[in-house]
């Protein structure tokens, strides 16, 4: 993995050539390597957009729906990190191998988050929890919960104007691809989409990049080389 700092991006971008899977924090792509690129794949969160902060959002919604003794935003932020990490391990790819829908995966994770704040499993009634969960899930299905990074459209237009084929590879659910990107008018920039919830593999596994390589070949030609594809993001 090659890290560079580009003036067209908000922060340092992590860039990976498909033919080279080793990490390097000090290298950069040469001009000759860049000139060979035909396909660019992008991550979503932190690369082209950000979402509203979990701790603050979960706390505000707890207040809104009247949860008794609502957890603070700090409690929720810390508990969510643990719950999310645990369920990524226990139910990888958002439940792909356990036949979980993305909505059920999130429901389980949010319930675990509340438990980790010290609110035991039956602390809230099923009606209270379901109301709370539905408000959170709906919130992250609205435009107000996302911020498109200021240079995203400039970069995407540059890629399209220079005839790059662009795709998405995200460790996320199909909701991001099917609902969020179209809602934000981002979907038309991309030729192909891959998410871990649909293919059963997560970055940085080679398998998900193999899927991406095959998708990219359809939009270019069968002679496409892995060294001609660049991934930007995590």
Give the key terms:
alpha/beta, Rossmann fold, DNA polymerase, domain 1, 2 domains, two-stranded antiparallel sheet, 10 helices, elongated, disordered N terminus
What does it look like?
This protein has about 230 residues and is of the alpha/beta class. It folds into two domains: about 1-50 and about 150-230, 3-Layer(aba) Sandwich (Rossmann fold); about 55-140, Orthogonal Bundle (DNA polymerase, domain 1). The protein has helices spanning about 30-35, 55-65, 75-90, 90-95, 100-115, 125-140, 150-160, 175-185, 195-200, 205-220, and strands at about 1-5, 15, 40, 50, 145-150, 165-170, 190-195, 230. A six-stranded mixed beta sheet has the order 1-2-8-3-6-7, sandwiched between helices. Strands 4-5 form a two-stranded antiparallel ribbon. Mean pLDDT is about 90; it is low at about 1-15 and about 20-25.
Which of globular, elongated, flat, extended, rod-shaped describes the shape? elongated
Rg value: 20 Å
Strand content: 5-15%
Number of strands: 8
Alpha-beta content class: alpha/beta
Identify the CATH architecture of the largest domain.
Answer: 3-Layer(aba) Sandwich
Name of the CATH homologous superfamily of the largest domain? HAD superfamily/HAD-like
Number of domains: 2
Order of helices and strands: EEHEEHHHHHEHEHEHHE
Oligomer: single chain
User: What is the top-level CATH class of the largest domain?
Assistant: Alpha Beta
| CATH fold-level assignment of the largest domain | Rossmann fold
**Cα end-to-end separation:** 10 Å
Strand arrangement within the widest β-sheet reads 1-2-8-3-6-7
Unreliable stretches: 1-13, 20-27
**Helix percentage range:** 40-55%
